[in-house]
């Protein structure tokens, strides 16, 4: 949606007056008579139209002098689906900012990752979002601070630095400006909640309805690597490698949100951990837009009507997923899990998990660079594929980050030995997050195509699927639903 929905005033007014939660995160409503900004679905009586102003980001609203509504908490809206759908500079920049790159590396670090000048990035973000990278990162720090203030008993000085503020004074000033309350008042308002222990947090991750949890959690549970992931007590649990330490997360689907239980070794990783969990579960998607397009195909319509809101299960670590995609080439799901578990046992970093059976972080590229290819129970060609991939990842020769250029990364992967279209597109779909990635050579997709009466050869199916663009990765999820496989249902 180039140009921004916030510029379509009539459409924004209709969304606010109907309290349409689908548009939460797409734009923010500022009320000039009260000085507050809200999400479109705010439960209070809608303001007069002449008092409404619309902004494309919470940061822009804050820069314009508005403070967050205490009722609808607009800073906690689902993210705009644009930043996961778009492959341009602004989309790539927003994904990196959400992952905390500006806090860790500054705006010059963001620019270096994107291959543009600081001035170019600032100009593009200001033009589309009404705020530059520093203001966008500041809005994210404010949201992180509020979460820590309201859900933990951590000392305020520790909250300030964990949220990424350079000083307690800046932290206090920002919280007061954004929320209209000092930190102690925010905590007092939330005092009825049971605070978590230091490093442990209980959060609710919002999403746009509908959401079908079956394929999402079923896929993650069915492919879980022992020691790194598990399904326990109705929740998908896994270890997380984070910028300042590591963590363990438990994600449990609920009708209106995802219950998220995080344990972190360093609270500075809270924002990155939340962002990666949202990315993993594709929670910022716009399922109505996706399903409306796909159900226009009479072959897909019954699948969409049966279980609308399917998401693309992604990953919290793109390099990990790329390695696992190679391990899964031409073998069963069980065999791929076994191969991955061996790598984890031999090269993963041990972690403690008192609440379950998690034992390791998945080894990073530096650790895997030490492996002896002769220990891999693969044919020689597959050994070359995985060792070449690991070498490229360790040397920084392939960018799999959330800010990567999808087309360039595809080209880089395709040059590696053993990387055919299936592996490249699988990585593009689940690691890079390209919503239009497509795997017509996948056996499950070809089986589904035959079952539904669609063209079953890869070339013919690709031509037919042009009508599903730009949502072919979601069409894949619906096609997989035609098979009787554990990835299509929640574990017992």
From TrEMBL:
Q: Which GO terms describe its biological process?
A: base-excision repair, AP site formation; DNA alkylation repair; methylation
Enzyme Commission code(s) on record: 3.2.2.21
Q: Which InterPro entries match?
A: Ada-like_dom_sf, Ada_DNA_repair_Zn-bd, AlkA_N, AlkA_N_sf, Alkylbase_DNA_Glycosylase/TA, DNA_glycosylase, HhH-GPD_domain, HhH_base_excis_C
Supply the CDD domains for this chain.
ENDO3c (cd00056)
**One annotated GO molecular function:** sequence-specific DNA binding
Instruction: Tell me where on the tree of life, at the top rank, the source sits.
Output: Bacteria
The UniProt catalytic activity note for this protein reads: Hydrolysis of alkylated DNA, releasing 3-methyladenine, 3-methylguanine, 7-methylguanine and 7-methyladenine
> Which keywords does this Swiss-Prot/TrEMBL entry list?
Activator, DNA damage, DNA repair, DNA-binding, Metal-binding, Methyltransferase, Transcription, Transcription regulation, Transferase, Zinc
Q: Using the record's annotation, list all stretches that form the HTH araC/xylS-type domain.
A: 91-189
What cofactor does this one take? Zn(2+)
- A single Gene Ontology CC term: cytoplasm
**By what name is this protein known?**
DNA-3-methyladenine glycosylase II
Can you name the source organism?
A: Saccharopolyspora shandongensis
Q: What is the lineage of its organism?
A: Bacteria, Bacillati, Actinomycetota, Actinomycetes, Pseudonocardiales
